[in-house]
What does this fold into?
Amino acid sequence: MLTSHIQAAMHRAMYKLLEDETFFGEILELKGLWANAETLEACRDELQERLEEWIALGLRMGHTLPVLDEVDLNFTKEEVA
It folds into this structure.
């Protein structure tokens, strides 16, 4: 389930080549998640690493995460018990 969510998020990633010739990547549905690197491949790798951290932090803090491609990482306290 986690892998499917990460893949769905990464398929939504948008990349731009900036004036300083570095790449900027973001996933619009995931507020505050972005990466910047010297190559497109490095930017994609950085974005995925930050995405994994973003998910872990969101779950730890009890935030509701966006459902992507019908993959829902949110759970209720009853589901945990």
